[in-house]
Amino acid sequence: MTHISYSELKTWKECPWRHKLQYIDKLKGFQGNEYTAFGTTIHEVCEKVAKDELSGPAHAKLLFSKRFEKEIEALPEEHTLNEKLLGEMKTQGEELIPDIFPALKEYFGEYEVIAAEEKLYEPIKEYAKSEYNFKGFIDLIVKTKDGKYHVLDWKTCSWGWDARKKNDKLIVYQLIFYKHYLALKYGIEAKDVEAHFALLKRTAKKNRVEIFKVTSGKKRTENALKMLKNALYYINRKFYIKNRLSCKYCSFYKTEHCR
Span 2-246: which CATH code? Predict the structure, then answer.
């Protein structure tokens, strides 16, 4: 059965031609940098803390340092490392790690960890012309004393997001899909699931962790699923138009694959 993930859907929405190159032709584009290495490492540490696999903050800091080094070593050889930035990131990560879960406690009060890195692979019933599953991994699911389930996605960033980015529907839809398909997977009422981003601010000196709720009601869910359905329709029709407004940060820009 064919599947689609949020990241694939986002790529298609930004540029169907880039989607073709990356997901149909299987060409390698952007393969990571210092920022993605930092984000991946923070995610791994958060997962292990949530699963109670570490002995305390000191262990978490040590794991961050070791895993960050491995992520940097795994970057493409042609990528030129910024040694100054790496040193800053190592310090910033070690300072950020101890603040993350206390911030969750302050935000939610008493909570129970239900799952970390919860896998989703659920049928997309809205698109009946072909069998597709929605594939994804939810960073963290917690349950509060009021019986509500909360879906969280960690987002590493520099200093935070402005109001425009917090309300960007293409960004927000990631959590809408996670909430929708989690509810379907376990037969939970949608009203009993809430969605949140947790911004983990690398350069902030205080308030390094900002958690905020995303509006995820019926109308917004319908709009997100409509976009997903339209994407699958055009992907199956091999509709690969180039979006020239999305070229600036594309790794295929001005290469033999896209001129």
Answer: 3.90.320.10
Number of DSSP helices (H) and strands (E) in the chain, helices first: 8, 6
H or E segment at 187? Answer: none
Tokens of 41: 């490492």
Q: Residues 85, 103: contact at Cβ < 8 Å?
A: no
Q: What is the pLDDT of residues 222-243, one digit of tens each?
A: 999 999 999 999 999 999 999 9
CA distance 212 to 66: 30
| Residue 3, CA distances (Å) to 6, 17, 122 in order | 10, 19, 9
Contact (Cβ atoms closer than 8 angstroms) between residue 151 and residue 161: no
Task: Report pLDDT digits (tens) over 64-113.
Answer: 999 999 999 999 999 999 999 999 999 999 999 999 999 999 999 999 99
The domain locations on the chain are 2-246
> Is-above-0.85 flag for pTM?
yes
Q: What residues does 239 pair with on adjacent strands?
A: none
Tokens linked to 98: 């101890």
